[in-house]
């Protein structure tokens, strides 16, 4: 009898362990290196549970500035990179860290500033003219200063405005932080800041800040996604990473992205090229 009970116990234990290993084997996950705007806008919290429900794949996001997100991909520490700096993304592919870049969605950048608008930029549409006025008035300006896609765009606009920010410029503050914390700094300083519209819509601590410049074609903000090259990094989860990309650019994924709204306002507009 004791031997029978022992055998039954061992058999049950083996079954439980085998079941556990099968469940573990079925767990699928990828690491997505992405920009803070996709996370802090709430987009990932909205779309990733839907993706997991459909595929069983858990997408674990590392949200940093676009420059840092691409560096993570260059080290092979992510399976997928999802960012918004087209020139840098194309260089990433050119250098062999990915084999293809896919366009996913877009929104735009907006210039945020105090309602009192000390630099008198409101009412215009040209971002570069607005920056010239801010520099002329030496009004407080907050920059992310973190090599993100937003920071890269801001630097392009300063260059286009013919303005070089000298080191130690007192009215120009670099935070080295993500979009949300940088907006918090601008709110506390009552200063100007360039932001992506998605994060601004989801931002609650606005204080006296409002949108002052929008609609300039130069403010267009495209997002792209890339699989980190498995030929360069064999540990990259090629199949699962590509499944995530394929879902993002599929009709289903595009509809999910389009359906993400805050107070009825759409944050991202899908534009994957079929």
Give an overview of the whole structure.
The chain is α/β, with parallel strands linked by helices. Helices cover 45% and strands 25% of the residues. It contains 11 helices and 12 strands. It has helices at 2-26, 36-40, 43-55, 66-74, 86-94, 127-137, 149-160, 179-189, 197-202, 238-249, 251-259; strands at 28-35, 57-64, 80-83, 98-114, 141-143, 172-174, 192-196, 209-213, 220-228, 261-262, 265-266, 269-270. Helix 10 packs across helix 11 (251-259). The longest helix has 25 residues, at 2-26. Mean pLDDT is 90; it is low at 2-25.
**Which bin fits the share of residues in helices?**
40-55%
In terms of per-residue confidence, which ranges show pLDDT below 50 for 5 or more consecutive residues?
2-25
**SSE pattern:** HEHHEHEHEHEHEHEHEEHHEEE
Please tally the β strands and state the result: 12
Main sheet properties: 10 strands, mixed
Q: Specify the structural class.
A: alpha/beta
Tell me, briefly, the overall form: globular
Instruction: Count every helix, treating DSSP H or I runs of 4 or more residues as helices.
Output: 11
User: For the CA atoms, what is the radius of gyration?
Assistant: 23 Å
Q: Report the portion of residues in β strands.
A: 15-25%
Distance between the termini: 67 Å
Average pLDDT, rounded to a whole number, is 90
């Amino acid at each position: 009898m004791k031997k029978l009970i022992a055998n039954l116990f061992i058999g049950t234990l083996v079954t439980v362990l085998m079941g556990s290993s099968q469940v573990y084997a079925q767990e699928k996950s990828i690491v997505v290196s992405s920009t803070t705007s996709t996370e802090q806008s709430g987009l990932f919290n909205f779309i990733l549970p839907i993706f997991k429900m459909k595929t069983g794949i858990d997408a674990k996001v590392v949200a940093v500035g676009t420059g840092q997100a691409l560096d993570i991909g260059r080290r092979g520490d992510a399976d997928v990179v999802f960012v918004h700096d087209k020139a840098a993304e194309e260089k990433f592919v050119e250098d062999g860290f990915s084999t293809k870049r896919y366009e996913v969605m877009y929104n735009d950048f907006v210039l945020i500033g105090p309602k009192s608008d000390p630099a008198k930029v409101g009412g215009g549409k040209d971002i570069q003219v607005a920056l010239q006025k801010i520099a002329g008035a030496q009004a407080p300006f907050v920059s992310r200063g973190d090599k993100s896609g937003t920071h890269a765009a801001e630097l392009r606009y300063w260059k286009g405005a013919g303005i070089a920010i000298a080191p130690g410029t007192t009215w120009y503050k670099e935070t080295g932080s993500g979009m949300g914390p940088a907006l918090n700094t601008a709110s506390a300083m009552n200063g100007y800041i360039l932001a992506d519209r998605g994060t601004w819509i989801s931002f609650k601590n606005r204080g006296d800040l409002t949108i002052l410049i929008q609609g300039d074609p130069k403010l267009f903000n495209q997002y792209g996604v890339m699989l980190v090259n498995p030929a360069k990094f064999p540990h990259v989860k090629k199949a699962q990473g590509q499944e995530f990309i394929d879902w993002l650019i599929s009709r289903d994924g595009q509809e999910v992205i389009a359906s993400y709204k805050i107070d009825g306002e759409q944050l991202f507009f899908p534009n994957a090229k079929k």
